[in-house]
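Hi R.,

Quick one: here's the Trafficking protein particle complex subunit 13 sequence you asked about.
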Amino acid sequence: MDVNQPKQEHLLALKVMRLTKPTLFTNILVTCEERDLPGNLFNQLMKDDPSTVKGAETLMLGEMLTLPQNFGNIFLGETFSSYISVHNDSNQVVKDILVKADLQTSSQRLNLSASSAAVAELKPDCCIDDVIHHEVKEIGTHILVCAVSYTTQTGEKMYFRKFFKFQVLKPLDVKTKFYNAETDEVFLEAQIQNITTSPMFMEKVSLEPSMMYNVAELNTVDTAGESESTFGSRTYLQPMDTRQYLYCLKPKQEFAEKAGVIKGVTVIGKLDIVWKTNLGERGRLQTSQLQRMAPGYGDVRLSLETIPDTVNLEEPFDITCKITNCSERTMDLVLEMCNTNSIHWCGVSGRQLGKLHPSSSLHLALTLLSSVQGLQSVSGLRLTDTFLKRTYEYDDIAQVCVVSSEVKQ
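And here's the predicted structure, written out as tokens:
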């Protein structure tokens, strides 16, 4: 702490103390083998030590709590609490005492005083006490400025300040990855790392989606009809450990038709993280709005709505395609179906699909068969825009497993 002492002798004394929870005391383990010179002396001393757990003296576990001996670390998202006391050390009555506490950060100055009213008088050996709380929302240097003004019996106005500097550290390292599915779903992987020096109990890690999406958390499994966390019943995150959380976002019904034509950067939502440390101190962080770059589909997007997983060899099967006009002009499309070495299309190639307006879609039912067993790729679709004479090729649209009819039966 950096403290500016007043230059002249004041009638009042200001004391500031940070309020933190105590910590568990851990004894220092000192032991030896029985054949060594101390014999059983060290073991007996540990058994007689009142701070050790009976029956587990060698595990460095303690039963006692110790008060903090220093200012300690303050992490982003935690609540900073401080006790402020102004004591009258003189033998005369002091009047019009005003105590003000401000917190100076790199971007703003906050008033933390519980009351802005002045105390009429303070008798000798009496004090004015106040407790301030502030949820820390910025990283970096913070300065607690405590100012005291008062009036002596002779009418002289006095004023002094003290400064207490501390650093706010980053508790978590959050990294995100986006995966775009063909069905307009977006999968978000959030990697959260504990970069503090103590374990954390992860109380909640949730995703608050934007107005376009509904979210489904994929961090639980159903066991005997009950939902259980994939991280187990005790969700502790040890120092420097990393944990992955997965979420699936689906466009809402009113945005589902436009999801395929959205371009540029879109807002997904923000993560809300709540944790507890030591003896239940609570911390909370909310990330800024997470953004992802929408995948580019060109002027025309072709996606599969339905397709079977397994089909019989040389037997027709049906698929449903969705064609979306992602451009800003009306298209007149022609569909061509080109056979490959394994995939054969059933139907008329070169048929007119008609006009497709911007941001609109149409569904198309197609029939095909495979002449080769194994995992085969559906390919060979061509869309031609008759206005611009431009052809769009679609290969490797999806995969299907082809087996003989005997194997499937």
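The first helix runs from residue 41 to 48.

Cheers,
M.
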